[in-house]
Design goal:
heterodimer, A: 455 residues, alpha/beta, Rossmann fold, 3 domains, 14 strands, B: 538 residues, six-stranded mixed sheet, four-stranded parallel sheet, molybdenum (chain B), ATP-binding (chain B), oxidoreductase (chain B)
């Protein structure tokens, strides 16, 4: 029960209640799973690693394997060098990954373990790769951890060809999205006949078929040669500023690969911008198939606008996805009146406020907020729909508001990670979800005698 | 048994072969094949996790905040640390709790100080104090518990003195738990830390006149999927009154006067045996090892309880309730037994269920071929008689041992020493015999099972059901073997008591009999696709 949430607002500066974020290493673990043959490794005490594996497993309903340095109190005082060395020895002997991607926790960060120097002093088996990212849990959120690991991929692996020569490829960083989204991005790129390097790529890693054979390292994931080759690409498109921009900027800084940061392509406008950028960079044409999908989407929204136009909505979750969802609901004619992320950062508030500037209503916008705060907003000014992750269920249930599940994590429903929310196809699915949620509620609330078949 | 003993040894040798020498030596001591003819069945347990081995274990914080404290519904539990630890303890373990009449229920909330880098540099004490103040102002709880996470111990935040100050300032109970994740080697350390603080600062701080005839405490039962609801239903039907629950559907308020009980029931030995022992020392209340998982174990536990209270009327009611309850489930359970007979199970669960579920499976015809604990100690495997032989390690020494003494005012002998000794001949009073004694010859006990061992043993033994947690569930499914989670119950339950056993059997049936398993191999890989003649053949 969320009946202890009072309507009257009390300033909180120190107590976070029901967060809309989690900590860095889980994002780094997720990113690392998008490398082919990679075992994510958590340099800290083993509780973190178990929690992160557990949580990703619950969202994807797939095996998520990662190892830990398993710190004890001794290591926590004297440093975790011996633990990491032992871990890597065991990992290569027993699990034989192609790559180990090490993230850190608040423990190893607080004691100041220098993972880079520990690893560089070690002999690793020939042909194997180790990368590491510093992911202190007391900075930012899981999305920042994702960004840090993706940045480490290019920083530690990308290699300029000698002599310099372009591979004629486009780098695409999809951001903290699901395998279903990545598949959709690939479909678009392939439909446009664009040669690309997409990283990290969790498709065919976290959506594998059940065929009776367990593969610890599934078929998917970006390969090490591809990651090395990112230095020779024509340009990098970073989808989602928070998750993807640091890696794109790093490539630009190191190897002069031009970086373009775009919104996560959720909704018409963001997808249009994504396609326009692809056109500009590659000179390819938009295939008729994709143009048709766009037209179908516009058709659907126009035909069904009465189902959602003017409806008040609260959106919460991770910054990149919330920014795009806010824009999409606006383009559908909805009214996003509460918009919140748990991840701190001024850019988020600025971006959302810019979008809402022309709207004639007051909106609550917060970065670094929590679900308790969102709940209080909703109590003060009710909405007709919530859009966000599974935890919003607490608000939805208490206030009797329909919830459309989009984002991370979705723990209480299945199939979501297989389907796209990006592109025109993804937008169609979102419109379907939004209108169904609103119409299910309308049907439920309509007297039997007044029930209609066509809405 | 499917495989001969020699077969098992070979399989285990094969499993161990992949390890580097040092790890192989270590792992070897954590695996044991049950053999009744051996005079000593010793297993190594509760030692450090091998780095990089892909353990299933969690940390001391999880054992303290997640397991023991989490279910206490009237407590605001402030996690002092960066956000992750608090976030992952939010709604992920299914300890259910219904608000007591007029009481507050914080089960669906999680509270954190959300430590930032400046708090790590300059210390987080100011923020913690402020967080407590904000919690008091918004929720006015009767008890606040503060739990430490990894960085707290390292930066030296004094959460104990902050708790003490807050207790005086706000006139409520405020407790601090030094359960940093790196303490000990697993969740187990967290259990011990939670037990110590609860015993020292919560139990016995309030006196209450109870007009209960058979007052009992339920210990080490966390109400996963409503287990404690089912247990309490049976106990109430017989005539018992639960004074306090440690801690499923429990409240800190009840624990404050839990010394008024006459018997402590211990379900999960690992997590709560410290409190059970200290209760006896301090207040003279013995503990009985019970098991409400499985009808056979439930019946035995109920009979033992009735005999302890030695009241013919109670014994009669016990038998009546057993008969009534059995009548409702015996026939379907027998049908499931027919259906499942010959099937095998692989159990790997935290610190108690790998033992408790063996009788549940047995009753429905399923044999356990491997069983292991993430963080059990030797006494959970071999029985409490080995406790004097357990060697202390450097990691154990970091966890404080709490010494309690007889409380002169509240100590009251519940039964005479002679009576106790008599009962101990018949039932596990102040005793737990461990898991291994009840296992079949040729079955394997394995401690701190890792990913490699899960896969190798599953491939070799081909169990029909793999029972563990969420991290290895889908690995098992990819191998085509149904996996039942014995932590979360796969969002079902209760599995305890009479009704629970039937629910469990139904869920196992759904899992094994679901048609999906028969579709794993596509038809074009099963039979020839050449049919008749095409293109002018014969």
């Amino acid at each position: 029960m969320q009946d202890l949430v009072p309507k009257e607002f009390k300033e909180r500066n120190s107590l976070v209640i029901n967060p809309v974020k989690t900590c860095q290493p889980i994002g780094a673990m997720y990113a690392a799973l998008g490398i082919h043959g990679c075992l994510p490794h958590s340099h800290g005490s083993q509780g973190c690693c178990s929690y992160h594996r557990m949580h990703l497993t619950k969202h994807f309903r797939e095996p998520v394997v990662a190892s830990s340095s398993s710190f004890t109190e001794g290591a926590s005082v004297f440093g975790g060098r011996a633990n990491l060395e032992t871990a890597l020895k065991n990992i290569f002997a027993v699990y034989d990954p192609e790559v180990v991607a090490i993230n850190t926790t608040c423990l190893s960060e607080t004691i100041g373990d220098d993972v880079t120097s520990i690893v560089s002093g070690m002999e690793i088996p020939p042909g194997k790769t180790i990368i590491n990212a510093s992911t202190p849990s007391y900075v930012g959120s899981h999305v920042v951890g994702f960004a840090n690991m993706v940045k480490a991929m290019v920083k530690q692996l990308s290699e300029k060809r000698e002599p310099a020569q372009t591979n004629n490829k486009l780098n695409l960083i999809p951001g903290f999205v699901d395998p279903g989204d990545i598949r959709e991005m690939k479909r678009i790129l392939e439909a446009m006949d664009i040669d690309y390097i997409l990283f990290p790529d969790q498709s065919d890693v976290l959506d594998t078929p059940l065929d009776g054979n367990y593969k610890m390292y599934p078929d998917g994931g970006v390969t090490i040669p591809e990651l090395k080759d990112t230095a020779n690409s024509k340009a990098t498109i970073a989808l989602g500023a928070l998750a993807s921009q640091p890696a794109a900027f790093e490539l630009e800084k190191m190897h002069d690969v031009k970086a373009y940061t775009l919104k996560t392509p959720v909704g018409i406008k963001a997808t249009d911008e994504f396609l326009m950028q692809l056109l500009k960079i590659t000179g390819q044409e938009i295939p008729a198939e994709i143009e048709k999908e766009r037209g179908q989407l516009v058709d659907i929204i126009a035909d069904t606008h009465h189902q959602f136009h003017g409806k008040k909505v609260a959106i919460y979750g991770d910054p990149d996805i919330v920014i795009s969802l806010t824009e999409f609901t606006l383009s559908m004619g909805m009214k996003p009146i509460h918009v919140l992320t748990g991840t701190p950062g001024k850019d988020f508030e600025a971006e959302i406020n810019k979008m809402l500037k022309d709207a004639d209503w007051e909106s609550n916008v917060a970065a670094g907020g929590d679900l308790f705060q969102l709940h209080q907003w909703v109590k003060k000014e009710p909405v007709e729909l919530l859009i966000g992750n599974s935890y919003g269920k607490l608000v939805a249930k208490q206030e009797d508001i329909p919830l459309v599940r989009v984002g991370f994590p979705i723990l209480d429903r299945s199939v979501h990670s297989y389907l796209p929310k990006i592109g025109y196809k993804g937008a169609m699915l979102l419109v379907e979800k939004i209108s169904s949620a609103l119409l299910d509620r309308k049907d439920r609330d309509t007297d039997f005698e007044l029930t209609e078949f066509v809405l | 048994m499917k495989d001969s003993k020699a077969g098992i040894e070979e399989i285990l040798d094969d499993v161990l072969q992949s390890y580097p020498a040092k790890s192989m030596k270590n792992r070897k001591e954590h695996i044991l094949v049950k053999d009744r003819n051996k005079s000593e069945l010793k297993i190594k347990a509760n030692t450090r996790t091998i780095p990089g081995i892909i353990t299933n274990r969690g940390c001391a914080y999880a054992g303290c905040r997640g397991v023991v404290l989490g279910p206490l519904k009237d407590v605001v539990q402030i996690v002092h640390g960066p956000i992750g630890c608090s976030y992952y303890a939010w709604g992920m373990r299914r300890h259910q709790g219904l608000a007591a009449e007029g009481g507050k229920n914080f089960i669906n909330y999680t509270f954190s100080t959300d430590m930032q880098d400046s708090d790590v540099v300059f210390g987080g004490e100011r923020k913690l104090k402020e967080a407590i103040k904000e919690a008091v102002e918004i929720f006015n709880p009767s008890t606040i518990m503060i739990t430490a996470t990894c960085p707290v111990g390292l930066i030296g935040d004094d959460i104990n003195s902050i708790a003490k100050q807050a207790e005086e300032e706000y006139g409520i109970t405020v407790m601090a738990f030094n359960c940093e994740g790196y303490k000990g080697v697993s969740q187990s350390a967290g259990h011990h830390i939670a037990n110590n603080e609860i015993m020292d600062n919560l139990v016995g701080i309030k006196d209450k006149e109870l007009d209960y005839k058979y007052p009992i405490n339920l210990m080490g039962e966390y109400n996963i999927g409503g287990d404690a609801f089912e247990i309490e239903r049976i106990l109430h039907k017989i005539g018992y009154d639960v004074v306090a629950s440690f801690s499923g559907n429990g409240t800190a308020d009840q624990i404050k006067y839990s010394h008024e009980a006459d018997l402590n029931l211990v379900q999960c030995h690992r997590s709560i045996n410290y409190i059970a022992e200290m209760f006896e020392e301090k207040y003279g209340i013995p503990w009985l090892k019970v098991n409400f998982l499985g009808v056979d174990a439930t019946i035995e536990s109920l009979r033992n309880m009735a005999e302890y209270f030695a009241d013919p009327e109670l014994q009669e009611r016990t038998e009546k309730v057993i008969a009534e309850e059995l009548a409702q489930i015996e026939a379907p359970l027998n049908r499931y037994k027919e259906l499942f007979t010959g099937k095998t199970a692989f159990l790997f669960v935290g610190g108690s269920r790998a033992h408790h579920y063996q009788n549940v499976f047995k009753r429905i015809g399923i044999e356990t071929v491997v069983a292991g604990y993430e963080f059990g100690h030797r006494d959970d495997y071999e029985g409490r008689e080995v406790i004097p032989d357990i060697e202390m390690t450097a990691d154990d020494r970091n966890i404080p041992e709490l010494e309690v003494t007889k409380d002169d005012k509240k100590y009251r002998l519940r039964i005479s020493q002679a009576k106790k000794e008599e009962l101990q001949q018949k039932m596990p009073l102040d005793y737990y015999g461990g898991m291994i004694k009840e296992m079949e010859d040729g079955s394997v006990a394995i401690d701190d099972l890792n990913h490699h061992e899960q896969i190798k043993l599953t491939e070799a033994l081909k169990p029909d059901i793999y029972c563990s947690g969420i991290k290895d569930k889908y690995t098992s499914h990819k191998m085509g073997i149904f996996s039942k989670q014995l932590h979360s119950y796969d969002y079902s339950g209760p599995y305890a008591g009479f009704k629970g056993h039937l629910q469990f059997a139904e869920d196992i049936a759904a899992g094994i009999l679901n048609p999906s398993w028969s579709y794993i191999t596509p038809p074009w890989k099963e039979k020839t696709t050449l049919e008749g003649s095409f293109g002018g053949g014969e």
